Every structure is written in structure tokens, then in C-alpha cells.
Amino acid sequence: MLVSIIIPVYNSCRYVERCIRSVFDQTYQDLEIIIVDDCCKDDSVDIIKRVLIEYPNVAPKVRFIYHEFNQGCAASRRDGMKEATGKYIIQVDSDDYVESTMVEKLAAKAQEDDADMVVCNYYYTNLNRRTLVEIEPPRDNIDFVSKVLLGNIHAGAWNKMMRRSILKEHDIYPVAGINMGDDMTILVQSLFFMKNISYVSDALYFYNCGNENSLSRTVYPMVNDLKLINLFTTFFDKIQVTDDEIVKSFYLFRLGRLGRNLLYHDLNDVEKHLPVFNVTSVNDVFSHKRMPLHYKLILFFYLKGFMPGVNMLRKLISFKKK
């Protein structure tokens, strides 16, 4: 059973050797490894090629895709997925790393259960510290989508092995330009078509929280959130989602994105795009348990029309950043 591992690479020379060795050391043999060079400006790809020389048995399984210009992680992930030929797909970020038995254990579970998706536990890592994250399996796919939208389950695709035929059949690929939440777009949409989801209790993925250049530590342009919200809105309309749990979770998701943009981006620009966020009521602001307090406060002030409070919070955030 061929498994495709997709690794987008862009300026990760500090971490990429650890990542690539963990992939090349996999105990599972039936692999294809697709490395997407998103026009790196450092020597990340040279490091990969140097390490690859040490793995002559792995070399025939490795393919490189080269972008002529930087397109972002969404386009890299998309191009890797479209080139993949495996029965299942695994995403690995080039600043993270994996257990040598990751593919073997996920593939065994997939074969045992004929699973469409297999999810494993993982570690948050920072310097020499590790924090175990154990996933409590949702009661069903609706609950899974809801928990992803609310941030109760990480939206990353990297600890989830997915059946490629389902992604291809329903044209589920990252959208160029949505570089923050690109793997969320894969997960949320695919969950409506994955009939059988299995879980492995082992922690097999190491998510690097120490990379200061990671997109997850960046305040991304508002257009990223607008594209993400529009994509989900169109998708939910297309498949006619009416479940109250998802409708409520998607509303709270939009609330959180609006709060972030009210804090970090030009207020006039935010107000131009209020119809996309589609948030009018202050009632649910404090019901979002995972939303940061400063997001809740600025939403409360803004939706109540108390602009002095909005401006005060924006100045505090600006001062803290400086």
C-alpha cells in the first residue's frame, strides 16, 4: 500500500535536516516522498540533497517539485497532493519531525479498519521541552468539524493520514493565497466525506513551536481570513449544511477572525468587509471558550459601538508589539 508524504519547503534550513532524516528513517517501506521547493532563498534544499546521499535505498522514492517563484505553503501543499499517487497522503511541515514508526503505525491501522482517515496524538515541542497532546475522538464527523472550527482540535493536516481518492474525487486541495489555515481547508471539507475515521493513541508527530519564522506566529493579512471564510461559506452552502452545531461553530469562528482583524488591521478596511464576517450580535462573544480575552473585549466594544474602548485596546496591542 503506497503512502505519499508531502513536504513543502521554504527557508527552513535550521530545522529541515532533522525533519528529512525522520522521514527517510521510516520503518515503512512502500513510500513516495514529494518535496516541494517553494523557491527557497536559503540552503534548505541543498541540505536535503546532501542528506539524501546517505540514503541510497530511499533516493528512488523521492521526487522534487520546484516552483519558479515563491507561491506560499498552500500552493506547495496543493502541487504535492496533485502529484501524489499513494493510496494515502501524509503532510509533514519542514520545521517539524516525526517518529520513525509513524507511517507504519498509521498504515497498519488504516488497513485494519479500512479507514478513510487515521489520526494520531502528537507533541508540541519547544527547545528541549515536549508537551503531549492527546486527542479525544469526537463523537462523529459533525462534532469533529465543530471542534476544528472552535480550535478544540488542531486543524493541522500533519497528524492525519487521509485517503487520497476522497480528496481527489471531491477536488479538496488547498487554495493558493490561503496560507494560514491551508490545511484547515483540507480537513474541514474532507470530514464531510470521510466515512470511517480511526485513531492511534501513540504520539507520532512533533510540532515545532520554537520556530520564530513560522506562519503560525505571524499576524496574517486580512485577505487570508476573508478567503478562508468565503471558501467555507461557499462549501457549506454547496453541500447544504444546516446542522445547528456547525452553524454555531462557524459563527464563533468568524467572530474570532473578526476580533483579530479589529485588533491588528486598519479599521476602515475591516469595516469594508463586515458582510464577509457576517457578525452582528454581541450575544455570543463571551461564549467562545478558546477565544483570547483581548479579542473578546474588542469585539464587545466594537459591536456595542464603544469606539474609545476599541482604540484603547488597539493602542495597547501596538505598544506591546513595539
- The count of domains is 2
* Main beta sheet strand tally, sense and closure: 9 strands, mixed
What is the molecular shape?
globular
CATH topology annotation of the largest domain? Spore Coat Polysaccharide Biosynthesis Protein SpsA, Chain A
- Helix-strand makeup class: alpha/beta
Indicate the percent of residues in helices.
Answer: 40-55%
Task: Examine the secondary-structure arrangement and name the CATH architecture of the largest domain.
Answer: Alpha-Beta Complex
Q: Could you name the CATH class of the largest domain? A: Alpha Beta
Poorly predicted parts: none
Q: In angstroms, what separates the terminal alpha carbons?
A: 52 Å
CATH H level of the largest domain: which superfamily? Answer: Spore Coat Polysaccharide Biosynthesis Protein SpsA, Chain A
Number of strands: 9
Question: What fraction of the residues are assigned to beta strands by DSSP?
Answer: 15-25%
What order do the SSEs take from the amino end to the carboxyl end, as H and E? EHEHEHEEHEEHEHHEHHHHHH
Question: Count of helices?
Answer: 13
Radius of gyration, in Å, reads 20 Å
Overall mean pLDDT score? Answer: 94
State the main characteristics.
about 325 residues, alpha/beta, Spore Coat Polysaccharide Biosynthesis Protein SpsA, Chain A, 9-stranded mixed sheet, 9 strands, globular
Secondary structure: elements and pairs:
Elements lengths: L2 E7 L6 H9 L6 E7 L6 H9 L9 E5 L6 H11 L4 E4 L5 E2 L3 H12 L3 E10 L2 E5 L7 H10 L9 E4 H6 L12 H9 L6 E12 L13 H17 L5 H21 L2 H6 L1 H4 L15 H11 L3 H15 L1
Parallel strand pairs: 1-2, 1-4, 2-3, 6-9
Antiparallel strand pairs: 4-8, 5-9, 6-7, 6-8
Helix pairs in contact: 1-2, 5-9, 7-8, 9-12, 12-13
